[in-house]
Amino acid sequence: MSMKGIVFLMIACCINSLALSQTLRTKDREAILAVMEQQESAWNKGDLEGFMKGYWDSDSLRFIGKSGITYGWKPTLANYQRGYPDRAAMGKLKFTILRVESLGKDVAHVTGAWLLTREKDAPSGYFTLLWRKIKGQWVIVADHSS
C-alpha cells in the first residue's frame, strides 16, 4: 500500500471514529440521563427496587465493586439491600455525569461520580456504566463503581 493509501485509510478511520462518537443521538443521551435522574430520585425516596429499574433485569447484568463481581439483577438488588438497609444508610444520592459517549448504535458508555450525603459522613466515588438499548429502553448492563 502506498503512503497516500495509508494516509487516506488513517483519515477514513478517524472520520469513522468521529461519526461513531456522535451516533448517540440527543434523544438517546437524554433518555439515558433521564433514567439516571429517576434512579437518583428513587434512591432519595428509599426505593431500591425503583433505583434498580435502571438496570437490565437479567442474570447477565454485571456489577463490579470493591467486593468483586456480582452477576444478575436479583443478586445486585440483594447487595444494595444489605449495604443500605434503611434511609439513614442510603442518605441522599447525587450523580455528576462527566461523560456520555456512544460505542455503537445501541451501546453507550457513561462516566461519572456519585456522592452520598448522610448525617455522619459523605462517601463518594466514581462509576463507569455500560448501557444498551434493549427492546427500545436504555438499561445499564454493566456497572463498575468505586
Description:
There is one protein chain. The chain has about 150 residues and is α+β, with helices and mostly antiparallel strands. It has one domain: Nuclear Transport Factor 2, Chain: A. Helix content is about 40%, strand content about 35%. It is built from 5 helices and 6 strands; from the N terminus they run H-H-H-E-E-H-H-E-E-E-E. The chain has a 6-stranded mixed beta sheet, with helices on one face. A hairpin with a 2-residue loop joins strand 1 and strand 2. The longest helix has 19 residues. The chain is globular, with a radius of gyration of 18 Å.
Beta strands, count: 6
Instruction: Compute the separation of the termini in Å.
Output: 46 Å
* Form type: globular
Radius of gyration: 18 Å
What is the CATH fold-level name? Nuclear Transport Factor 2, Chain: A
CATH class: Alpha Beta
Structural class: alpha+beta
Which stretches of 5+ consecutive residues score pLDDT under 50? Answer: 5-22
CATH architecture: Roll
Largest sheet: 6 strands, mixed
Helical fraction: 25-40%
Total helical elements:
5
Strands ordered across the widest β-sheet: 2-1-6-5-4-3
Strand content: 35-45%
Helix-strand pattern, N to C?
Answer: HHHEEHHEEEE
> Average pLDDT, to the nearest integer?
89
Number of domain units? 1
Keywords:
Nuclear Transport Factor 2, Chain: A; six-stranded mixed sheet; globular
What is the gist of this entry?
By secondary structure, the protein is of the alpha+beta class. Helix content is 40%, strand content 36%. About 12% of the residues have low confidence.
